[in-house]
Specification:
homodimer; MgtE N-terminal fold; CBS-domain; Tetracycline Repressor, domain 2; 3 domains; three-stranded mixed beta sheet; two-stranded antiparallel sheet; 67% helix
Chain lengths: 484, 484
């Protein structure tokens, strides 16, 4: 009933807290270092470490942490190197373990969970809502999940099972079960009395859901509408029926776009029988969008997953190796293409110096096209009707760019090597390679999309491979025909 | 008072609407084509175009559009090629011009505004809130802005001036002025009666703001807290005072992180005197995050701005040319590095075929490091204390990758060219270039950050330039020393 129920430890700049924690950790470490430098026998060292001074920093640190919001603790844990991170993790009061685990990134969560035993994990998970447990589930050991299932009431057990059954990118994976249901034949007065029985409403309750006796969804009653209307009004007269309804199997991205387009705070999730099964709230959508956009950026650089910046060297190598291996294969292929023309290069060694220009600019231009197309595909803006128009436009852009930059490289080649025919070959090769880049830049993502695969993943490697090998082949091939 | 005040034309799949609009446009176009094929004199053709059939499709299209949410119309406009887009834009009823202009992307907005005259633009802008007018302002002609300023009431004129004065990436640019103020010494009963005088509360009113007589911010009263408490309670007893407060000059990204961390729906914006000047709502934050992440992706591919997929060839070339020019310069430099070693390549032409492998993998690895570091910098996770640790880790990762992939390329070279010394040079060059990539991958973004520049912009070009030229130099240099 009072504000102590609310998480009110907000902070405007979490980095200040981070600095404070780091300074306390540093003091703590200094003491340890002094103790170790004394080169005392192990048991004496231990005694000294137990001194007041030493404990004092840790106690201060613990007090500091207790005053922080779980999300801020999560942030601090992510920014600390592994040994300091685990020290802080040990100090965090165990009642908040669950909330913090939900907030940290996947990579860091793994490092924290690794330090917890079965009992601690079960206790941490039990503090959470069922939809949150479902989010944590992939990282929890099987026996912990079994314990959890046993300890949950029947209804929540069913919710957990349901939440875990949906794929990660579906609405079902985003939804929670913290809804307020009301009936349509009551007055606002009755609803008000009902709501006053809650200590607090679930977070993000901007509307309550109107259902019938069998949980069939009837409509929504925005709290704001309740507040501006007279108490004698009946729910059924005020409720909105023509609002967005999500389905557990919808794509999460589609739901996110609905939230963006219609500025929603929450939306009901309805199953195929028309029953209300859950709701999605804007905070989850915000996290989803941030995570998606970050994984797009990471994928573009070939990082398989979010990497804990303090992960071990070996873990990082594993995260990155697939991309390097893939690119190595395409580099080998390009290398073999060049070796076909070794004879020409021996005769005219300038070709070796000039060929990376053609390949490189082709790759850059192709990636620009791909980025455009992938974005338009994600927004659903490309279809059979306009694909041809787009293709024509990209060919036009490349043709024009080819003329401009082809002339530039032609001029460059002429200034250095004083050969008009070499310079013309450069120009022609540039135009052709940019046309290859444009065609494939449109075709590769469209084809991947048609095959039901994610056009964002892999398009970039393919186009770069094509413009590298293709660029070398076109340039060296033309040179072989016209120059040697 | 009724739900007709709400924008309730939600749709679950806007792509269905797009298809319908396209099919109507297609029918319309078919009629025009038939008319033109008749090869009639111009005036007869015109008469025929005026036939019932022709008008009918347009009328049907107009009815369709009237039923759609402004955000959905914006979506459809973005997905249509330019001539069809303008046809649809003409059909949209003028009362909704303003709302739609706010929703479309910058690039498309420009194409729409270009078709409107001064009077139409003024009328469109007048439908909007002052914070929305401020968003539109950069795209509006000066004389329209002057007209607008003249037509606004004094208070709104001041708001507009304030909103326009903040830089694009500040909290001031995100805030709106649609707040409900209350005093702390009244009861919930009084607040309820006050709120009932509104037809509807502003969107995203999850809390009302408590201020004193001089607009000094005192705290917030969540609507949900109002709903669960008894009417005789006094605002001052219930209000929360320890909540997040934003300032107009704060970075927008920092505010976005607060919304994510604390799951906010709205937050007050307070000036330096402690007065409430506005509020930020989660829908604006959502748009901000989406736009930011898209511009990250676009920048990575060197697209200067969001590109209308149906922009003219010439416009697209302008959007993309700077990136290609920049990369061309770095390619020229790499080319000059290679030409230093033309003598060695003439003697051992295999070098020409192998050198792109070293340069390419160096670039990939460097970009992986940069992506990690830029992300950690954006989250504020890197500081003087841990930068050295990170550097050491990245060197370790590169060293290990260099050994692994260096051995692979060494083996590849041996299998093809049967020279152990060539193969050893390959391995050594790969290790060295990956170490260069790791060092610069950490140093470049940290340096840009220290200089107060955005580490995301430009890092990637610089690292690729370094690993290309560096890779060629290292490999050909080693080869010149040991092989020729």
């Amino acid at each position: 009933m009072t504000d102590t129920n609310h998480k009110n430890h907000y902070t405007e700049n979490v980095q200040d807290h981070l600095k404070e924690v780091e300074s306390l950790l540093h003091k703590h470490a200094l003491v340890e270092e002094v103790v170790h430098k004394q080169e005392l026998p192990r048991q004496d060292r231990h005694a000294l470490l137990d001194t007041l001074l030493h404990k004092q920093h840790l106690a201060e640190l613990q007090r500091k942490l207790e005053g922080l919001h779980p999300a801020d603790i999560a942030y601090i844990l992510e920014a600390l190197p592994i040994e300091q991170r685990l020290l802080v993790w040990d100090l965090v009061k165990s009642e908040r373990d669950g909330e913090i685990l939900i907030e940290v990134s996947d990579a860091v969560r793994e490092s924290l969970i690794a330090t917890m035993n079965r009992e601690e994990l079960r206790a941490a998970a039990e503090q959470l809502d069922t939809d949150e447990i479902a989010d944590l589930a992939p990282d929890l050991p099987q026996n912990v999940m079994r314990d959890l299932f046993k300890s949950l009431p029947v209804e929540e057990r069913e919710q957990l099972r349901a939440a875990m059954s949906y794929p990660e990118d579906s609405v079902g994976a985003l939804m929670d079960f913290n809804m307020v249901h009301i009936r349509e034949d009551v007055t606002l007065e009755v609803v008000s009395r009902y709501l006053r029985r809650f200590d607090e409403l679930p977070d993000h309750t901007d509307q309550v859901f109107v259902v019938d006796r069998d949980d069939h969804f009837k409509g929504v009653l925005p709290i704001n509408l309740m507040v501006v209307n007279e108490p004698h009004m009946v729910v059924g007269e005020l409720m909105l029926t023509d609002t967005i309804q999500l389905h557990p199997d919808d794509k999460a991205e589609q739901a996110a776009q609905s939230f963006e387009r219609y500025d929603l705070v929450s939306a009901p999730v309805i199953d195929e029988e028309g029953k209300l099964v859950g709701r999605v709230t804007v905070n989850v959508v915000l996290d989803f969008i941030r995570t998606e956009s970050e994984s797009d950026l990471l994928n573009q650089a070939g990082l398989r997953e979010e990497e804990d910046i303090f992960a071990s060297v070996w873990k990082s190598v594993q995260n990155r190796w697939a991309w390097l291996a893939l690119n190595l294969v395409t580099a080998f292929i390009a290398s073999r293409v060049i070796s076909i023309f070794e004879g020409s290069i021996e005769k005219l060694v300038a070709l070796a110096a000039l060929m990376p220009i053609i390949a490189g600019i082709g790759g850059n231009s192709g990636n620009q096209t791909i980025t455009m197309i992938v974005r338009a595909l994600a927004l659903g803006q490309i279809n059979a009707g306009n694909a041809r128009k787009l293709f024509a436009k990209e060919i036009g852009v490349s043709g024009l760019n080819g003329l401009i930059w082809g002339s530039a490289v032609g001029l460059f080649a002429f200034l250095i090597y004083h050969s008009i025919s070499l310079s013309l070959v450069m120009t022609l090769a540039m135009i052709l390679n940019l046309l290859v880049a444009a065609s494939l830049g449109v075709l590769i993502p469209l084809t991947l999309h048609k095959l039901g695969r994610d056009p964002a993943a892999g398009s970039s490697v393919m186009i770069t491979a094509a413009t590298d090998s293709g660029g070398f082949f076109i340039f060296l091939g033309l040179a072989t025909i016209f120059l040697t």
